[in-house]
């Protein structure tokens, strides 16, 4: 279901992937620095989540300014929270690359502003911990403030997220956290000798099984 979400004096394009039965939890998903919400990995994940009973709202926000992207993400969170069509108990924020930085930034900001527990967790796909070959400057400030559960899905050969550096940051995080390494994958999650669909199946299954750990106990 296509929707337009008011953002300042314009609109963000977004698409709901809606499960057959009424969902109680949702995921808000956005893309990296390039591309848009129709990036194949996002489309695949959204379809997988909806097929397994989780609502997914993915949106496009162009622009390479992280503050701008964060503001847009915040607007989408508010939109879904106030939606009359979908009364959700909570949402998980998810993003690919720069989108995951924006998601982390939103969670940090909202946790300082209000203490409701609408946001349940964070999913970082290919989190860009540093620029290629610039390992000395880590983008970890938001991660260290987050208290809700966080899942990282990263390639072990990601040129923007060196394995040891991410493990180091994660060991300092206070939040419940998990890293799933895609063996030999680069930042774009490409792996020599594996098809994109094969890699996506692994990612989708990982994301969903992690979500389920946090969703299911609340239903029992």
TrEMBL record:
It comes from the Eukaryota. InterPro entries: AB_hydrolase_fold (IPR029058), KANL3/Tex30_Abhydrolase (IPR046879), NSL3/Tex30 (IPR026555). Transmembrane segments: none annotated. Residues 27-209 form the KANL3/Tex30 alpha/beta hydrolase-like domain. PANTHER family: TESTIS DEVELOPMENT PROTEIN PRTD, TESTIS-EXPRESSED PROTEIN 30. This is Testis-expressed sequence 30 protein. The lineage of its organism: Eukaryota, Metazoa, Chordata, Craniata, Vertebrata.
């Amino acid at each position: 279901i296509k929707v337009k979400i008011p953002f300042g004096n314009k609109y963000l394009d977004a698409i709901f992937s809606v499960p057959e039965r009424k969902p109680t939890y949702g995921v808000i998903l956005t893309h990296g620095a390039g591309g848009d919400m129709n990036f194949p990995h996002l489309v695949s994940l959204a379809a997988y989540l909806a097929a397994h009973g989780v609502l997914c709202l993915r949106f496009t926000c162009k622009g390479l300014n992280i503050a701008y992207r964060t503001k847009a993400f915040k607007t989408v969170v508010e939109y879904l929270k106030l939606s009359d069509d979908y009364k959700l108990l909570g949402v998980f924020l998810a993003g690919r690359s720069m989108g995951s930085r924006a998601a982390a930034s939103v969670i940090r900001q909202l946790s300082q502003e209000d203490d409701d527990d609408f946001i349940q967790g964070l999913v970082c796909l290919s989190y860009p911990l540093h620029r290629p070959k610039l390992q000395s400057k880590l983008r970890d400030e938001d991660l260290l403030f987050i208290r809700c559960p966080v899942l990282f899905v990263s390639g072990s050969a990601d040129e923007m997220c060196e394995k040891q550096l991410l493990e180091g940051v994660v060991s300092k995080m206070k939040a419940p956290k998990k890293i799933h390494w895609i063996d030999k994958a680069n930042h774009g999650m490409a792996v020599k000798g594996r098809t994109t669909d094969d890699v996506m199946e692994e990612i989708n299954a990982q994301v969903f099984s992690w979500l389920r750990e946090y969703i299911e106990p609340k239903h029992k």
